[in-house]
Design goal:
Layout: H1 5-31, H2 68-83, E1 89-94, E2 100-103, E3 116-118, E4 124-127, H3 132-148, H4 155-188, H5 192-204, H6 217-237, H7 244-259, H8 264-277, H9 279-305, H10 326-332, H11 340-343, H12 346-354, H13 360-363, H14 366-378, H15 386-412, H16 434-448, H17 452-470, H18 481-488
Antiparallel strand pairs: 1-2, 1-4, 3-4
């Protein structure tokens, strides 16, 4: 339907207001980032059999990092910038008491992490995370240190370095992706309410806001996916799209895959769809641009480990199961969320990943509308209007990629890897799909916006989503509210 110009102007004003408030709120959390120690996660002094760990007898080092996950990356950043190496520690044999003698960054208070691997040949420790993102962060940190003297080992400056990096890699690109989504909503939406609903959901109803306060690959992959999807939608929607859009789509599609390995399905699907649209431009622009992040991914991995494949490929072998490693202890005593895969069937795991305690559709039910939107969008496959072609592309892409990614995490991962992402407030392995789901949510939101009861349902789904992403305010590396509720009532126990 055609809307008057003043309505479009009002919507643009609303988009700006929503994005400003959302970005400023997330930036505030980033600037105030800090590790919080909770007494309810430690055992009482008179309960030695309690599986929770003891309360520390000495004051821990204050750190603007949250978990083993981000500390693993920060250790690599520090090693690269200070020593020019990816080695974050070393094992110097075994002491008289039979315990390993380790030294290096990961043995320092505030820098320890379980997310590390040990090269059995050199006895060097490395982060188990792919090194491309830490390498990029190390470049920015090195610049900050050389120009301003901000040394992350100095407690005075680490509280500046970490927020600046998080703003650079998590917040500012996310702000750009929100604006791109608003442009997509403006072009492909058909109602004021539907357009504003999608942008509001993007600003406040996804876990990207929760995880912006920690260094992680999921936020980076999410905004990168939007940077790839937006030019692809333009290519499909415009009769004479600029050639540079193919290169941008190729670069960021591959960069998404470099940060989330299952997103290789996204890059491959986008390649096929654009190849169908314009074979020559896809082969001469999309492919060469995509090779840049791919080369960076494999190149940094080889520079770090001397091997082309990432450390994840060694899971279950000596690189992970060394003496004293978390993963060996877990194998010997499978307890906690990381033992979920060996305690429940794939069917139960799939339920909890989708609708249960870590369920993406239970915690953020706005994405139930995305499923409906995919079906609606596919009806436009034969449409001739530019808006119809764009929605058809997004729906086909989202449906195919979602099926592949869910299949991978439910059916391909081994028992020891099925752990919902560990201690995390949401299904973090699926976060990078957020831009795809938000785009295909558009037609469903437009449909809801045409009736009072539809709008009421939309408000309810949005309210639950905002509650879920706001629940872990002090740290994203905590269990979801549904998990905590089920655990408190004895319905779930790992």
């Amino acid at each position: 339907m055609n809307l008057p110009a003043d309505s479009a102007s009002s919507r643009r004003t609303a988009y700006v207001l929503l994005i400003v408030v959302a970005v400023a709120g997330v930036a505030g959390r980033v600037v105030g980032v800090g590790r919080v120690y909770e007494p309810w996660l430690t055992r009482p002094a008179d309960a030695p059999d309690d599986p929770r760990g003891p309360w520390r007898a000495t004051r821990p080092e204050p750190m603007p990092t949250h978990s083993d996950n981000d500390r693993s990356r920060w250790a690599t950043v520090r090693a690269l910038a200070h020593d020019g190496t990816y080695v974050i520690g070393r094992r110097d044999g075994v002491g008289a008491d039979g315990k390993p003698i380790d030294r290096g960054i990961v043995t320092e208070d505030g820098w320890g992490t379980i997310d590390k691997v040990l090269n059995p040949d050199t006895q060097d420790f490395y982060s188990s995370k792919p090194p491309l993102l830490p390498t990029l962060v190390a470049g920015e940190y090195r610049l900050l240190r050389d120009v301003f003297g901000w040394d992350i080992t100095d407690p005075k400056y680490r509280w500046v370095v970490v927020p600046v990096v998080l703003l650079t890699f998590n917040v500012f690109p996310w702000a750009v992706s929100l604006w791109l989504l608003a442009r997509v909503a403006e072009r492909h939406g058909s109602t004021d309410w539907g357009r504003l609903y999608v942008v509001t959901a993007a600003c406040f109803g996804t876990f990207l806001t929760t995880f912006a306060a920690t260094l992680n690959n999921h936020n980076v992959a999410a905004w990168s996916a939007m940077f790839a999807l937006y030019p692809a939608l333009r290519v499909w929607s415009e009769e004479e799209a600029p050639a540079w859009l193919f290169a941008v789509a190729g670069f960021f599609a591959a960069f998404t895959a470099a940060n989330e390995l299952p997103a290789t399905a996204f890059a491959a699907a986008l390649f096929v769809l654009l190849l169908w649209r314009s074979p020559a431009r896809t082969l001469t622009l999309f492919v060469p641009a995509a090779l840049i992040p791919a080369a960076a991914f494999f190149g940094t991995n080889y520079a770090a480990l001397g091997e082309w494949l990432p450390a994840y490929e060694k899971f279950g072998g000596p690189w992970y199961d060394y003496v004293g490693s978390y993963w060996r202890r877990l194998q010997e005593n499978p307890t906690g969320i990381d033992a979920a895969g060996v305690k429940e069937s794939r069917a139960v795991y799939a339920f909890h990943l989708l609708l249960g305690h870590h369920g993406v559709f239970a915690l953020t039910p706005i994405f139930l509308l995305a499923l409906a939107g995919m079906v609606v969008g596919l009806r436009h496959l034969r449409g001739k209007a530019s808006t119809q072609r764009g929605l058809a592309l997004a729906s086909l892409l989202a449906l195919a990629v979602t099926a592949v990614v869910l299949g991978f995490y439910v059916f391909v991962l081994g028992d020891r890897s099925r752990n919902y992402g560990g201690w995390t407030s949401g299904p973090r392995w699926l976060f990078w799909l957020t831009p795809l789901w938000l785009v295909v949510l558009l037609p469903a939101a437009d449909g809801l916006g045409r009736s009072r009861w539809g709008r009421a349902l939309g408000y309810l789904l949005l309210a639950v989503s905002v509650l879920s992403v706001s629940y872990p305010q002090y740290s994203p590396w905590r269990h979801p509210w549904i998990y905590n509720l089920l655990e408190a009532t004895g319905l779930v126990k790992y």
